[in-house]
Design brief:
181 residues, alpha/beta, Rossmann fold, four-stranded mixed β-sheet, two-stranded parallel ribbon, 6 strands, binds S-adenosylmethionine
C-alpha cells in the first residue's frame, strides 16, 4: 500500500466504503504507517484480517462488498497458491451485477525466466498463469474478462492519463473482469 495513492488520499474515494483485506501482520504495519501519516484513521475504511490460505478465507471474503463493488487484488496472486487465487475469483464472481475485479498476476513465461529465479526464491512466488489461462479461470467463476494489460499498456492507458508517475514491475499483468447483469 502506498499511502499517497491509496484510498486514504484519493478524494474520489471519500464517498466509497472500503474494506481492506490483508494478513493481520501486514495490516498492523499498514495501520502504524497510517497513524504516523494521517491526523485520524479514515472512517470509511474497514480492516479485515485475512489469510487467503486459511480454511475460513472464503467466508471472510464474503462478508465484504454489498452492492456494486470494485475488488482490487494487486500484487498478491503470485504469493499464494492456485486454491487461494480461486477464492478471490469466487468472491468476485459472486458480487452484484456491474461489479469489477482488477487482479494482477505473473505470466508463466515471466515466472519461469531463469533471470527471475532469484526474485522467485526471495519473494516466494507460488503461482503464475498464461493470459489465456487466467481468462478461463475468470470465466469459470462467472466473470467476463474485459482486458489484460502488460506493464507498457498499464503506463500508457492507466497511469499517464491520470497524471501518475509510478514504477510497475515489468513482468506483471493486470486483468479486469466484470460481473455482467
Ligand atoms: C507486494 S504486496 C502488495 C500490497 C497490496 N497491493 C496492498 O495495497 O496492500 C503483497 C501483499 O500480499 C499479502 N499477502 C501475502 N500472502 C497473503 C495471504 N496468504 N493472504 C492474504 N494476503 C497475503 C501481503 O501481506 C502483502 O500485503
Amino acid at each position: 500500500m502506498c499511502i499517497r495513492d491509496s484510498p486514504y488520499r484519493m478524494p474520489e474515494m471519500a464517498a466509497a466504503e472500503v474494506w481492506e483485506f490483508d494478513l493481520a501482520s501486514t495490516q498492523a504495519v499498514k495501520k502504524a504507517a497510517l497513524a504516523r501519516a494521517l491526523p485520524a484513521a479514515p472512517a470509511h475504511v474497514t480492516y479485515v484480517p485475512l489469510d487467503l490460505t486459511a480454511p475460513d478465507a472464503a467466508d471472510v471474503l464474503a462478508r465484504a462488498g454489498t452492492g456494486r463493488t470494485l475488488l482490487i487484488c494487486e500484487a498478491v496472486t503470485m504469493y499464494v497458491d492456485a486454491a487461494a487465487v480461486g477464492r478471490v475469483l469466487a468472491c468476485a464472481g459472486a458480487l452484484a451485477a456491474g461489479s469489477r475485479l482488477i487482479l494482477t498476476y505473473l505470466p508463466r513465461a515471466e515466472a519461469d525466466r531463469s533471470a527471475n529465479r532469484g526474485w522467485s526464491r526471495r519473494l516466494g512466488w507460488r503461482s503464475a498463469y498464461d493470459p489465456a489461462e487466467i481468462a478461463d479461470r475468470l470465466r469459470e467463476h462467472g466473470l467476463t474478462p474485459l482486458s489484460d494489460l502488460g506493464a507498457d499498456e498499464h503506463q500508457a492507458r492507466l497511469l499517464r492519463p491520470a497524471g501518475r508517475r509510478l514504477a510497475v514491475f515489468p513482468g506483471e499483468r493486470i486483468v479486469i473482469g466484470a460481473v455482467e447483469g
